């Protein structure tokens, strides 16, 4: 062997020894994307034995199994292979994207770390992987079911979702908690309170089971098409029998953690028919009655009466607008007071909603209040129906008499009348006059002269008072801040106030006002506008939690208004709340 070949052989041997001596320490996961009801396995592998292993804190996950340790040694072609593994089983706490941070270990006096691992947790999947420490009995003998009353409703027709937990007689449940709540996107929803969990007997796939009703929810779809109801996910501790028995021969029970889901449901929402749809249809769906009543029909001018427009029955009472009351111009009408008396159960909304108008007549006479008309879609006949009230006549007994022109304008259309000429056609022309002489009283030393002379001296104390008041106001820092905040609120909300009564224009203007206010105050662009950042920035500016929560709730109302009916009263309340909230935030900003 030549010297060159010998040196080459030595170099190759040293390189192979160096490669074989390279330390590897890495984290491996069973999957990088999983449902919230699935389990994740993570292995921390090393090719050399080490000490002082420090796992990450697994933020966003619960450790349901592990750590378990495994070691393998093997020889292949005279080479030794070594692997040591620490294994954990994790259960995600909620949906989102999480990072499992670095693990550490000491190998031959050196500290080695794994790379961080990113995991995406989605909504529950229909067939999750079984938890490593859960028995097959637990998976087969406990079920969460979402019972939907109707899967093909009309738009704005009530449906119910009842969540039931079925447990077989030979197993039990010792603890449970909601892990992921369903989100009812594109639905108006309301949960029905359940008082106590009553255990009942029933059937599940033909077998005897016990069950409890965990949740009842009423939904009103707000758009047509296929809508998805996300699943409810529970973490449950299940008690299952083992093969061991006690001294009396009874099977011993073991507790097994289990994640169950009701599965997602799809609702196919039918649009309301276009054929026969009235022009004044406001979205009412159900079975309703209409009444228009007044507190009195006879009164004197400048006295007041109340006129009440009320719709009652069963249907989406909170999701449409009431018809407006129209009156002659001689009756002064104030903004109505909106009232709701609605209860919600498994059959949907029932009760009544009303607008009460205060009316004040200005002149003597009889004034007809025209009939009020209301249309709705009847689910029983699947047709549109119209309700109309009777005409009401308001008799004003005492008061000033309206002018002829105003009476004609209010009670009858324009009528041409013949013009009658009198014998004295030019009676309006003045043909004679009388002249009076001008006063010759001198201005000097008159009352007006002395008044104008003393007026500047009388204004001096007033000027001193006003100056001191101005200095006091300038030194009132808190008061100035309050007044400035109020002016700022009115400035940003002026456009929204002009659009009160027009739902879409009002909420667009209100949302722009909130955007522009924060853009001016916090120096953030519209592209960076999200609720989490708003909350964080305002908290950093020492703004209290309550006005922040009110501000965000108004933003949510602006988003919700795109597909949900809002009344005039609701818009006025949102406007007042926005003005108050902007004022409070501006006073607290540092």
From TrEMBL:
The keyword Transmembrane helix applies. The chain crosses the membrane at residues 448-466. The keyword Metal-binding does not apply. It holds the Pfam family BatD. It comes from the Bacteria. InterPro entries: BatD. Residues 1-21 form the signal peptide. Keywords: Membrane, Signal, Transmembrane, Transmembrane helix. PANTHER family: BATD, PROTEIN BATD-RELATED. This is Protein BatD.
